[in-house]
TrEMBL record:
<protein>
    <submittedName>
        <fullName>Gluconokinase</fullName>
        <ecNumber>2.7.1.12</ecNumber>
    </submittedName>
</protein>
<dbReference type="GO" id="GO:0046316">
    <property type="term" value="F:gluconokinase activity"/>
</dbReference>
<dbReference type="InterPro" id="IPR018485">
    <property type="entry name" value="FGGY_C"/>
</dbReference>
<keyword id="KW-0808">Transferase</keyword>
<dbReference type="InterPro" id="IPR018484">
    <property type="entry name" value="FGGY_N"/>
</dbReference>
<dbReference type="InterPro" id="IPR050406">
    <property type="entry name" value="FGGY_Carb_Kinase"/>
</dbReference>
<dbReference type="InterPro" id="IPR000577">
    <property type="entry name" value="Carb_kinase_FGGY"/>
</dbReference>
<dbReference type="Pfam" id="PF00370">
    <property type="entry name" value="FGGY_N"/>
</dbReference>
<dbReference type="InterPro" id="IPR018483">
    <property type="entry name" value="Carb_kinase_FGGY_CS"/>
</dbReference>
<dbReference type="InterPro" id="IPR043129">
    <property type="entry name" value="ATPase_NBD"/>
</dbReference>
<feature type="domain" description="Carbohydrate kinase FGGY N-terminal">
    <location>
        <begin position="4"/>
        <end position="247"/>
    </location>
</feature>
<feature type="domain" description="Carbohydrate kinase FGGY C-terminal">
    <location>
        <begin position="257"/>
        <end position="451"/>
    </location>
</feature>
<comment type="similarity">
    <text>Belongs to the FGGY kinase family.</text>
</comment>
<keyword id="KW-0418">Kinase</keyword>
<dbReference type="Pfam" id="PF02782">
    <property type="entry name" value="FGGY_C"/>
</dbReference>
Length: 510
């Protein structure tokens, strides 16, 4: 049997999925790891914990699939975007992995937005100006910890760190590079204006290569630990966001992918780079002639985790369930509440917000709380708030790429039928639920076969996509949400000063 592996490094876990060449899942495994938040503005991870997770995930997935090393045709590599770490000449970490959720460079991002320099850079690089961006993180290092930049031999992402451990190669795929804020969309090289801004020589960055680049000759010891042949073709792959679009089959005009995992995103594919006049959307590479535009939200499943950890801590029924079952149980409880949560509206900005606000100071709000509201109302309002944030991004995306005709779902939220229906009702579009919810891993596997010439076009991935369920919007509920959404949007935009004031207060009390 010939199989292909999709490897996906996410924010909270690394997953490896073994696929048959018809897309059937033969085995999979996920390894979780913590996000370290020493203060309100920092969100970091341990690179070696992630490396160990990669090793364990691949080994266990191969074991569960019951395949031999010789049967593995290729491995495709997906990774979360916007990570940054500094390493010395021997690739020993000088910092932890600074993730997309890190806000330490908020002041630098705000300055770039105010002076207009940021918008000009965005139009060249496709990466919105926000603390998530390695561009603003490097500017923070330049201004706050310049000695670390001086010591560093390389400034890299977690994906580059893993690739170096496996192959001792210093390369970065066009997709991850296009999410740094340092990469030129037109020339597919490092952008000179961005490098000048952060005071960085391009020798401290890896060599950009196409996402279909094939690596072989893996470190033999590490290959053995993962039950792999060292010569197994390893396709460098792309970022998790663009691969999620590929992994659900949203490859044509009018097809949009919505992903909600720890965070959320809405994306559509276009044939050439496309940016927004106001800098509200991203534009990232999949291949040289296939780009993905859209917007990310900071707040998705991370709110469900917060609810579980703080509101359900002593719930005995919940304690007996798996993590996925716990979240489904919570959303099912909220399904007993009518659309609109009986007048409770949530601005779900618990971790600041990216698209379309791009405001790291944004904060969560429960608006309209009254004595009759219960725990179930709060869950319902939060789920609806997350869906409203997806709607706000979708409306901006439609201005650029045209109206969505169909929406494909992926990510953890897609395991909850109640949440899927709420999303369809909010968007007013039919929601299609592919059989496999591991869209980024599937996209990585498909891109690997495409890179090897085993898949003729990216559109051929649709042969792998089996729609499990469809969720047409319910007219009455959609009308409720159409009535509530303008209030959601009004509050989001008119609390900007208040967000800034409470954010400053919070930082002063930490």
């Amino acid at each position: 049997m010939a199989v292909v592996i999709g490897l996906d490094i996410g924010t909270t876990s690394t997953k490896a999925v073994v696929f048959a060449q018809d897309g059937q899942v033969l085995g999979k495994h996920a390894v979780h790891y913590p996000l370290y938040q020493p203060d309100v503005n920092r969100a970091e991870q341990d690179p070696d914990e992630i490396m160990r997770a990669v090793m364990e995930a691949v080994k266990e997935a191969v074991t569960r699939a019951g395949v031999r090393p010789a049967e593995i045709v290729a491995i495709g590599f997906s990774s979360a975007m916007h990570s940054l770490m500094l390493v010395d000449k021997d690739y020993r970490p000088l910092t932890k992995v600074i993730t997309w959720a890190d806000n330490r460079s908020a002041a630098q991002a705000e300055r770039l937005r105010r002076n207009g320099e940021g918008l000009a850079l965005y139009k060249q690089t496709g990466t919105p100006i926000h603390p998530m961006s390695p561009l603003t993180k490097l500017l923070w290092f330049k201004e706050e910890e310049s000695s670390l930049i001086d010591q560093a031999a390389k400034c890299i992402s977690i994906k580059e760190y893993v690739l170096y451990q496996l192959f001792e190669t210093e390369v970065i795929d066009y997709s991850i590079a296009s999410a740094t804020g340092l990469f030129d969309l037109t020339t597919l090289t490092w952008n000179e204006a961005a490098l000048k801004l952060v005071g960085l020589d391009k020798s401290k960055l890896s060599q950009p290569v196409p996402t279909t680049t094939v690596l072989t000759g893996m470190n033999k010891e590490l290959a053995e630990k993962m039950n792999l042949d060292p010569m197994t073709p390893f396709v460098i792959g792309a970022s998790d966001g663009v691969l999620a679009n590929l992994g659900v089959g949203a490859t044509e005009a009018g097809e949009v992918a919505v992903t909600i995992g720890t965070s959320g995103a809405v994306r559509a594919m276009v044939p050439s780079p496309l940016t927004d006049a106001y800098g509200r959307t991203f534009c990232y590479a999949l291949t040289e002639d296939c780009w993905v535009v859209g917007g990310p939200s900071n707040n998705g499943g991370i709110l469900m985790r917060w609810l579980r950890d703080n509101w359900f801590k002593n719930d005995r029924d919940l304690a007996q369930l798996t993590e996925d079952e716990q979240y489904q149980w919570m959303v099912a409880e909220a399904a007993n509440i009518s659309a609109g949560a009986e007048g409770l509206l949530c601005l779900p900005y618990f971790a600041g917000e990216r698209a379309p606000l791009w405001n790291p100071d944004a904060r969560g709000v429960l608006f309209g709380m009254s004595l009759h509201h219960t725990r179930a109302h709060v869950i319902r309002a939060m789920v609806e708030g997350i869906c409203f944030s997806i709607l706000s991004i979708s409306r901006v995306l439609e201005e650029l790429a045209g109206q969505a005709k169909v929406v494909y779902a992926s990510g953890g939220f897609a395991r909850s039928p109640e949440w899927r229906q709420i999303m369809a009702n909010v968007l007013g579009r039919k929601l299609l639920m592919p059989q496999s919810t591991e869209a980024s891993a599937l996209g990585a596997a498909a891109l690997a076969l495409y890179g090897l010439g085993e898949m003729k076009t990216l559109g051929d991935v649709k042969k792998w996509i089996h729609i499990q369920e469809e969720y047409p919007p319910m007219a009455v509920e959609h009308q409720v949400y159409q009535g509530l959404y303008p209030l959601y949007e009004h509050l989001s935009h008119h609390l900007t000063d208040e967000f800034q004031r409470i954010s400053s207060f919070q930082q002063g009390t930490r």
